[in-house]
Amino acid sequence: MIRIFFLIFIAGMLTAGAQVQQEFILVSGGPSLEEWEKYKAEPHDRWWGNFVRAARVRIQEIQRDKGPNAMITWLVYKPAYQRRGERQDKADIIGNITSVRDKYGINLVWFDRSADLVAYLNEGKPRDQVKIANLEYYGHSNRAAWMFDYSNEIDSGSKCWLHETELKNIHRGIFDRKAFIKSWSCHTGESMSKLWKKATGKRMIGAIGKTDYANGHLRNWTPGLSPGGRWGG
After folding, report:
1. Distance CA 170, CA 202 (A)
2. Closest by alpha carbon to 74, among 85, 87, 60, 84?
3. What domains lie within the chain, and their CATH numbers?
4. Of the candidates 144, 182, 184, which has an alpha carbon nearest to the alpha carbon of residue 164?
5. I want to staple 187 with a disulfide (CB 3.0 to 4.6 A). Which of 1, 19, 87, 143 is the partner?
6. Beta-carbon neighbour count of residue 77 at 10 Å?
7. What distances in angstroms separate CA 10 from CA 15, 19, 21, 128, one per listed residue?
8. 131 phi and psi, to 5 degrees?
């Protein structure tokens, strides 16, 4: 009996001593194309790098606060940046994004389907050992969905999105107890944040109103809120 209790005690000590790691995840949706936006009163994404530069600055902040060895993963919707580089900017945008990975030594994961994003959240790391401590989204959205290719493949619409009705596919238990989750995109605090909490058990901060990426250099590239907007969720 004493031996059994001793073995249970040792097993408990080993479990307690196994340190759970933290992963910091950033997600960048893609920019629109001028061919769809040029006739609008307020065209989107005159610069291709809105959602990339904001993520890059956040990478720097995390490494400053958590140290250079912090586990950072950056998920980027590749097709939109390929189209933007080939059809509008005539530049190697994919190479520019890859250079950020190389400069900061982070894990860059390209995705081209929302299912790939969800799969990474659920299984990209062994989630019993590596919990998601930070998840932030930079890109286009409406009140019910992240839209990864808004006005990039079709005018004023998206063919790749993560809808609030799909959030049930995200596993509970993958997040750190004090996980910070924020959607730096328009309107998600009006509906999607509520369903995120219901699906995952974690709060997601989202905008009530629109977010603003214009003149990012005046805010250290951190997205702001349009007049009348506020953060909720």
Report:
1. 11
2. 60
3. 19-232 (3.40.50)
4. 144
5. 143
6. 27
7. 9, 16, 22, 20
8. -95, 150
78 burial (CB, 10 Å; 0-12 / 13-18 / 19+) is middle
List Cβ neighbours of 190 (8 Å cut-off, separation of 6 or more): 143, 206, 208, 232
Query: CA end-to-end span of the chain, whole Å?
Result: 52
86/95 Cα distance (integer angstroms): 12
Which three-class secondary structure string do you get for 16-39? HHCCCEEEEEEEECCCCCHHHHCC
- Say if residue 68 is exposed, middle or buried (CB neighbours under 10 Å; 0-12, 13-18, 19+): exposed
How would you class 205 by CB atoms within 10 Å of its CB: exposed for 0-12, middle for 13-18, buried for 19 or more?
A: middle
Mind listing the pLDDT tens digit for each residue in 76-134? 999 999 999 999 999 999 999 999 999 999 999 999 999 999 999 999 999 999 999 99
Q: Which residue has the higher pLDDT, 11 or 120?
A: 120
Question: pLDDT tens, 130-169?
Answer: 999 999 999 999 999 999 999 999 999 999 999 999 999 9
Distance CA 84, CA 140 (A): 15
What is the token pair recorded at 92?
């190697």
Residue 113 has φ and ψ, to the nearest 5°, of -140, 150
Q: Of the candidates 203, 225, 76, 197, which has an alpha carbon nearest to the alpha carbon of residue 137? A: 76
Nearest to 42 by CA among 143, 132, 151, 138: 151
CA 212 – CA 227 distance, rounded (Å): 9
